[in-house]
Design a protein that fits this description.
Elements: E1 9-14, H1 21-34, E2 38-41, H2 49-59, E3 66-68, E4 82-88, H3 99-111, E5 114-122, H4 127-132, H5 143-155, E6 160-164, H6 175-187, E7 193-197, H7 203-211, E8 216-219, H8 221-225, H9 227-238
Parallel strand pairs: 1-2, 1-8, 2-3, 3-4, 4-5, 5-6, 6-7, 7-8
Bound molecules: SN-glycerol-1-phosphate.
Length: 240
Amino acid sequence: MEERSRRPLHFTLIDPHKTSPREAAEIALNAKNAGSNAILVGGSIGVYEPRLSEVVRSIKRAGLPIILFPGNINGLTPEADGVLFMYLMNTSNVYYVTGAQVQAAPIVMSMGLEPIPTAYIIVGYGGAAGYIGMARPIPYDKPEIVAAYSLAGAMMGARIIYLEAGSGAPQPVPVDAVKMSVSLIRKAGLDSLIIVGGGIRDGDKARKIIEAGADGIVTGNITEEDPSALEVIIKSIMSS
Ligand code: 1GP
């Protein structure tokens, strides 16, 4: 494994549809204390601007950067710092590649959000994001296809390659797929960050993904269900 030049990143995901502003504030504070780097806010269903803004305002006190993770154009608020400006690479519907983006771009600019170009790639289970985004999830046992998508995303200029197994996935994106993606992108001389999310629920899985070369991980469900798990997961990736 090549030497890591920066510390692994951890993102805490909050779904504003499932989490009240009060709960969100607690999660964000816990995330800050556990050493998480930023809060992602978003979800596939039930997100609407007033509630989203309320949730984002409630987590500001924790002092972490707040980055939107929108499933659609309803996932935007000027209260956040930035937005994963995503294109869903393996959707069968062009709306999720450029349609929503055309609607969103002027709004993102008016809101003063920092756009972070992100190639979103759905693997295996896919969850709600895969279903709503009309993805053709890449089979868990086809790491070479995941890697080819990752390389294409990097070549298309994405700053972040987000490998997603879907929230609540029974198993995360396989380490082989992460390893091959990292290796192809670095061989091409590109420096996109590789972030992995979906189904990461313990320190061991998190560490293996980081050891495979990922720059960071995202955890959602476990963060909401068991606040103490977050510290264990973050310690575990930091020790990799
Ligand atoms: C979903 O990758 C995230 O977009 C997080 O998934 O809720 O399974 O941690 P989990």
